[in-house]
Amino acid sequence: MHYRNLARTGIKVSQYALGGGMYGALTSEKDSIKIILQAIDAGINLIDTSNRYADGESERIIGQAIKGRREDVILATKFGAEANSGLNQSGGSRRWVRQAVEQSLKRLQTDYIDLYQLHQPFSDTSFEEILGTLTDLVQEGKVRYIGTSNHQAWQLMEAQAVSGRHHLQRFVSEQSPYSMINRSIEQDITEMALRYELALLTYGPLAGGLLTGKYTAGQAADSHSRAARLRGSAALALDPELPENKQKFDVIHQLQMVANQAGISLAHMAVAFVQSHPAVTSTILGPRTSEQLGQFIAGADLRLSPDVLDAIDTIVPPGKRLDDKEQMWTPGWLNSSRRRRA
């Protein structure tokens, strides 16, 4: 396992981060704890979750798993994308963030969170409000560092400016989707991260399982696969039987041919591709089983040659997103109420 600097914090984090999205949802508590301990033993020291995952069960399971191993872990969680429909029970307000952090600390069974991240941007809450609250939490010792997730480059720059102008804590990291078929962050976020020394934690390197090589255009997905388990828009993006997905699966087939020629698996090539970008600090992996984690770890030392990277660039050009379904989230300003005059 290789380690990289988390921005300029002085903290070293593993090239792979363990994502907790499956825990308490598709993976049982027993199996989740097994995976977490396996990851720590393999040298993965960054564990990422959210208070949203499985309605907080992911945090609770992680807290249970790392008892006695807390100092071996850089613990990251997120707030602000809660599914709670109660008034003032989600978002980025000082009132809610204060409640959310206490709930997360309790579930995680810890006195502090190493990296506390804003899960998504908010148009109705100022960065002054959010950063002011997070600064207080850092000063109180409940949070060590702060970061963002799913933000645009201009929003990250605005936050940096607010921090400097008001002498508030600075976001040290951003979480963004990045894969061989979703390279949109190369347009601006990767360069901004390098220029302003922001740690970039990328997720979705396998594009929800599309880049594992287990799906074939026109053929039904295996009943145990993620494509068969998911519902809604996420399932549509993975469905190999949908005619509108044919072009995407044709491109994935071309990528498979590159992997075959290089003598590596498509999944290993996909993760190594993300790791090859100099702006990427750590890649968040979300294995559902212990076996899947073992496969990821087996590819930790893989480095792609310039010829392989050039071949990938030819199939999916830099900065391109193959499918709008790969965006992972929809900005609030694309809602009709924000695009039309009253």
TrEMBL record:
Species annotation: Paenibacillus enshidis
Record has Nucleus as a keyword: no
SUPFAM superfamilies assigned: NAD(P)-linked oxidoreductase (SSF51430)
Keyword Cell membrane: no
Protein name (record): Aldo/keto reductase
PANTHER family the UniProt entry points to: NAD(P)-LINKED OXIDOREDUCTASE SUPERFAMILY PROTEIN (PTHR43364:SF4), NADH-SPECIFIC METHYLGLYOXAL REDUCTASE-RELATED (PTHR43364)
Gene3D superfamilies attached to this UniProt entry: NADP-dependent oxidoreductase domain
Highest taxon of source: Bacteria
Keywords: Oxidoreductase
InterPro entries: AKR, AKR_Detox_Biosynth, NAD(P)_OxRdtase_dom_sf, NADP_OxRdtase_dom
Domain NADP-dependent oxidoreductase positions: 18-315
Top-level taxonomy: Bacteria, Bacillati, Bacillota, Bacilli, Bacillales
